[in-house]
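dude i think i finally got it to work??
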Amino acid sequence: MPPSPPAVPAVPTDEITRQAVSTGAVDGQGVPTVEAGAVSPAGGAASTASRVNAGWLVLAGMLLVALNLRAAVTSLGALLDEVRVGLALSGTMAGFVTTLPTIAFAGLGAATPWLVRRFSPARLLVLAMLALTVGQVLRAVTGSAVVFLFTSALALSGIAVANILLPMLVKQHFPHRTGLVTGAYTMALTVGTTVAAASAVPVAHAFGSWRAGLGVWAGLAAVAVLPWLPAALRGRAAARRSGATLRSGVRPGRTRLGWAMAVYFGAQSLSGYAIMGWLAQMFRDAGFRPQDAGLLLAGVTALGVPIALLMPTLAGRLGSLRPLVFALTTASSLAYLGLAFAPRGGALVWVVLLAFGQGAFPLILATIGLRARTADGTVALSAFAQSTGYVIAASGPLLVGILHDATGGWLAPIGFLLVALAVQTCAGVLIARPRYIEDER
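look at this
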C-alpha cells in the first residue's frame, strides 16, 4: 500500500481538540497532546491529562455504541419463530421484519451527513442510543404487529445513524490508527451480535416470554448513552464558538469507486442480514432444537470476533485487497453449498466457513477509512456506501422468506445468496486497488 498522505485536520468536535489542532498538538491517534515542558493555556500537566482522558473516553464510547449495533437484529433472528407465533405474522411479514434493518439503515444513513452538519457527533449518538433504547422497550411490550414494526423502525433508526458516525469518528480522533480502531469497534460489534444471538432464547425461556429476550438489550443501549453526555451537553456552545460545520465537496455517487464500495457493501449486507434473520430457522428445519439453532447462529458471530479484529489490520497492510476478497468468496460459497445439501451433518463446518465469509463486513468498514483522506471524505463515503448498500441489501431477507414460502425449502433461497455473492466478488475486485475518493471528484 502506498504511504499515507499527509494528515488533513478534521473538523474539531470539542473545545480541547480545537485548541490542540490550532497549535498542532495532536498525537498519532488524534488525541491532543502538549510537548514536554510546555505550558498549555488550559493549565499544563493537568490539562494534558484531561485531553488524554478525553481521547480514551471517545474510544470507550465508540466501543459501547458498537456493542449495540446488531444486538437488536440478531436477538430477533434467534426468536423469530416465537415472534411469528406471538404476533401472528405470516412468512412474508416475517421476511419484511428481517428486511426492516436494511430499510432503516438506508434511509437514515443517507440523512446522517445532513445531521452531522447541524449537530455534534456526541449529540447525535446520544439521540441515536436513546431511540434504540425506547424502541427496544416498546416493541417488547406491544401486542400489535403494526406497532412492533414501527417501534422496531425507531430502534433501528438509532443504529442507522451510529453506523455512519463511527467511521468518521475513527478518522477524526485516530487518523493513524484506522485499521486498529476499526478492528476494535468491529470486534465489539461482533461480540454484541454474538451475545445477543446466543442468549436471546435462554433469556426468553428463563422469563417465560420472547418479549424478555428482545427487551433486555434496551439496558445495554441506555448504558451507551453515558460516555457521550458530557460532550453532548456542551456541544451546542462549542459549535457556536467554533462556527465550524462539516461540509464535504466529495460526491461518491459520481465516482466509480463510490459505486463499487456501495455494491460491495450492499451485497455483503444482503447476505449478512439474510443469515442473521434466517440461519437459526434453517437449522431448526434441519432438526436442531431451538436452543441449539440459536447457538449455531451465535457461533458464526463468535468466530467472527478475531476475524473482525484482524481483517482491518490485514486490509491496511496489503497492497491489494484481492487475496482477501477471493478468500472470503471461497469460504462463503462452500458454506452455502453445505447448508443446501448437508445442513445437519456438517453444521459446525458450515458455521466456521460462514464466520470467515462474513469477514467481508469488517473488510468493507476498514476500506471506507482506507479509501478516504479526510474525515469529511470518510463520512461522505460512509454515508453513500452504507445507505446505497442497504437499499441493495433490503431485498435479501425478504426474498429469502418469499422463496422459502414458495418452494417449501432452502435450495432456492441459498441459490439466490450465491448470486449475490458473485456480485459482491465483482465489486470487491474493483475496490481492491488503493486509491482515494477525494481524487475521483
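The radius of gyration is 22 Å.
im so relieved honestly
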